[in-house]
């Protein structure tokens, strides 16, 4: 690239300039602005942000050749879960620790995380080592804003008096968290009075004592006060993780209070809550006591911890030159012509039959996730027109492995098939290996377990959603999806139409769970998956004693073929006696009073039945009774994964009257389409406790989803209860 790179830097708060300016200085054509329109008029090649602005910027520059580049917000900011916003960046720069941290929440940039070190701490790493002044120390007081955990609250207005007890001579620099001083934050308005009291006290100190300085400009960076500090007094503020770089004494207010503003999903994922980098205090007596011994405690104990954290957090780059490295990496990206139009350039070479140049560019594009499928399809095309059909098939297979439903890859494949250019048996074998991946099954044992899992899946959920949305055609009323039917054992064109579809903001969303119908076996997504789960989790199904609470369904017929002794039933009411069959050979059973012997079955399967039984507890007891010692109960019910408790929609009162607590919901009855069944429950995680109370030993939910098998539309959830020995 010969022209100058047009480098844009976007900030939302002034203090972010601390990392933006040193990087910007490496570019001749540059702009640093907080104005989006100014940014657009500049026509940048990339925009760099040090804030949660990646989504905003990527939407603002949608369809334009602008890379979004980012470093994470703040020096060591890990109070919340890995920030989804950074998955909208094309490139992220930072430390190995930050990379792992983001990956723990499945947050990845579109193109690459480049390990450069963290530019927020560049200044601090450049502060020279010096001997500490133990007689007349400079104390940096830097409290955070949450009143529950802030060192501004404890010791409060005893601060000066207590320090004076320990040191006859000292300097005090007060540099509170910017949010205490900057009144633009709506959500902090309720603390205004508290903040005013704190500030009044600090002003009073500055006015009355020569050795006190109060820094009341929120935009000023704290790191410049690090140089003089011999001791830091703080709390759970993230700045302690920056100060430890200097390996100097730290005194911390250790409060276990949960700040009101932190939501419940925040757990101690990070090391932020561990305050073992400095001496602590919980009240004002301990404050003076710990401060008195601070230099000894630091040298003998806490300094070692600081060194360990420093290496864990900042890794190999501790030279204060991270912004230099970032600028260098950005230039490298552009020098290698890896701008957004690499594929376009390659395709123009293909059009001119300059395959060698095209090949070179496409292979470069393969190094970046974003371009992979496109590049593979183009490479396949080049091989096809060069009569290298086997090589073409390799590229097609790779593209389909990334996206089993990539349209261009399928076009290339069909071209090979229809023109007999390659052995079709070989193609089918290849396809089977792509699609027949192990079914991923996530077992979840409790609501808390689910919250953890949810956190790790947020970004993945969003990606799946986007993937599914893209499949839906604008005008057609039916479309196909290539998937592997586990029943037919081959890749088939699953059919999707809009039967029982949903509307979301006016857009049609297929009923994925009930559609994706195999053209051979006619089974839909839900039924194929149920079959798959049974096959996967109950390998002895064929030779086991199994009872299933349905007998007139396609799934029953399929399972009956596998296991000739399978027993099924329907609920026929009073017309047929329990355990007997009607004229059509349909057995009648009441789940709350089964006619089977104790311990008769190895496996009991019940799909979407329990929610129709007012006294479902009784049915659970029966399930336990008819299973043998190692027996297992597999079932599905309407389930609200975000609800801890079961949701009761309707009930029968003591007088036998039906009471609706929520608008009545009816589900189809396979025996009679006019006779619909009332749904009494939507279950929550309490169902697992219900099962444990009945006596089941091992109880869990199973979450599954698969693009390869066509199990789309959010995860389907099964429950499994095992009796144990
Ligand atoms: Zn099939």
Automatic annotation (TrEMBL):
Every Methyltransferase type domain range: 564-635
GO terms for biological process, alphabetical: methylation
Can you say what this protein is called?
A: Methyltransferase domain-containing protein
Q: Which Gene3D superfamilies match?
A: 3.40.50.12580, Tetratricopeptide repeat domain, Vaccinia Virus protein VP39
| Molecular function terms, GO-annotated | CDP-glycerol glycerophosphotransferase activity; S-adenosylmethionine-dependent methyltransferase activity
Q: Which UniProt keywords apply?
A: Methyltransferase, TPR repeat, Transferase
Species per Swiss-Prot/TrEMBL record: Ignavibacterium album
PROSITE patterns associated with the record: TPR (PS50005)
GO CC terms for this protein?
A: membrane
Q: Spell out the residue ranges that the record assigns to TPR repeats.
A: 373-406
Q: Which InterPro entries match?
A: Glycerophosphate_synth (IPR007554), Methyltransf_11 (IPR013216), SAM-dependent_MTases_sf (IPR029063), TagF_C (IPR043148), TPR-like_helical_dom_sf (IPR011990), TPR_rpt (IPR019734)
């Amino acid at each position: 690239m010969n022209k100058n790179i047009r480098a844009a830097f976007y900030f939302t708060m002034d203090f972010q300039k601390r990392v933006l300016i040193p990087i910007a200085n490496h570019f001749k054509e540059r702009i640093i602005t907080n104005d989006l329109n100014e940014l657009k008029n500049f026509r940048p090649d990339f925009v760099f942000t040090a804030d949660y602005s990646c989504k905003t910027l990527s939407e603002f520059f949608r369809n334009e050749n602008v890379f979004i580049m980012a470093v994470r917000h703040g020096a060591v900011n890990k109070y919340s879960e890995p920030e989804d916003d950074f998955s909208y960046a094309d490139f992220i720069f930072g430390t190995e620790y930050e990379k792992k941290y983001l990956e723990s929440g499945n947050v990845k940039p579109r193109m690459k995380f480049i390990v450069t070190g963290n530019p927020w701490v560049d200044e601090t790493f450049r502060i020279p080592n010096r001997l500490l002044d133990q007689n007349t120390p400079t104390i940096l007081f830097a409290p955070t804003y949450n009143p529950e955990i802030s060192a501004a609250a404890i010791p409060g207005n005893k601060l000066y008096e207590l320090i004076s007890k320990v040191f006859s001579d000292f300097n005090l620099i007060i540099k509170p968290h910017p949010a205490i001083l900057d009144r633009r934050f709506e959500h902090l308005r309720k603390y205004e009075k508290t903040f005013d009291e704190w500030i009044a006290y600090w002003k009073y100190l500055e006015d009355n004592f020569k050795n006190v300085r109060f820094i009341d400009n929120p935009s000023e960076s704290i790191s410049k006060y690090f140089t003089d500090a011999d001791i830091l007094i703080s709390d759970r503020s993230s700045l302690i993780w920056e100060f430890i770089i200097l390996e100097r004494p730290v005194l911390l207010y250790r409060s276990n209070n949960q700040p009101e503003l932190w939501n419940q999903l925040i757990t101690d994922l990070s090391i932020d809550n561990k305050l073992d980098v400095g001496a602590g205090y919980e009240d004002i007596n301990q404050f003076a006591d710990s401060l008195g011994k601070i230099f000894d405690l630091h040298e003998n104990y806490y300094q070692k911890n600081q060194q360990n954290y420093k290496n864990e957090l900042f890794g190999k780059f501790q030279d204060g030159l991270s912004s230099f490295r970032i600028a260098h990496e950005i230039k490298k990206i552009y020098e290698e012509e890896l701008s957004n139009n690499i594929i376009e350039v390659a395709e123009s070479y293909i059009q001119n039959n300059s395959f060698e140049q095209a090949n070179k560019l496409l292979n470069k594009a393969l190094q970046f996730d974003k371009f992979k499928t496109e590049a593979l399809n183009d490479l396949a095309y080049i091989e096809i027109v060069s009569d290298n059909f086997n090589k073409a098939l390799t590229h097609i297979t790779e593209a389909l492995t990334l996206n089993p439903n990539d349209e261009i890859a399928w076009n290339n494949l069909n071209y090979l098939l229809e023109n007999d250019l390659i052995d079709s048996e070989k193609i089918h074998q290849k396809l089977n290996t792509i699609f027949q991946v192990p079914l991923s099954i996530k077992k979840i044992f409790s609501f808390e377990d689910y919250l953890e899992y949810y956190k790790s899946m947020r970004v993945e959920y969003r990606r799946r959603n986007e993937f599914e949305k893209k499949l839906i055609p604008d005008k057609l009323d039916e479309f196909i999806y290539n998937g592997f039917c586990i029943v037919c054992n081959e890749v088939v064109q699953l059919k999707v139409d809009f039967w029982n579809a949903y509307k979301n903001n006016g857009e049609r969303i297929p009923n994925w769970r009930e559609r994706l119908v195999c053209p051979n076996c006619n089974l839909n997504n839900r039924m194929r998956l149920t079959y798959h789960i049974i096959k996967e989790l109950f390998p002895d199904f064929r030779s086991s004693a199994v009872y299933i609470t349905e007998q007139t369904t396609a799934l029953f017929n399929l399972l009956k073929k596998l296991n000739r002794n399978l027993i099924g039933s329907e609920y026929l009411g009073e017309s047929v006696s329990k355990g007997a069959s009607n004229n059509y050979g349909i057995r009648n059973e009441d789940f709350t009073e089964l006619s089977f012997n104790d311990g008769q079955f190895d496996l009991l399967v019940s799909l979407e039945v329990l929610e129709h039984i007012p006294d479902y507890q009784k049915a659970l007891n029966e399930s336990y009774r008819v299973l043998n010692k190692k027996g297992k109960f597999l079932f599905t019910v309407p389930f609200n994964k975000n609800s801890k408790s079961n949701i009761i929609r309707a009930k029968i009162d003591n007088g036998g009257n039906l009471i609706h607590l929520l608008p009545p919901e009816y589900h189809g009855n396979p025996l009679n389409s006019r006779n619909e069944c009332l749904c009494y429950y939507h279950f929550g995680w309490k169902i697992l406790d219900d099962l444990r109370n009945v006596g089941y030993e091992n109880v869990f939910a199973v979450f599954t989803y698969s693009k390869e098998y066509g199990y789309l539309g959010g995860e389907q959830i099964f429950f499994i209860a095992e009796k144990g020995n």
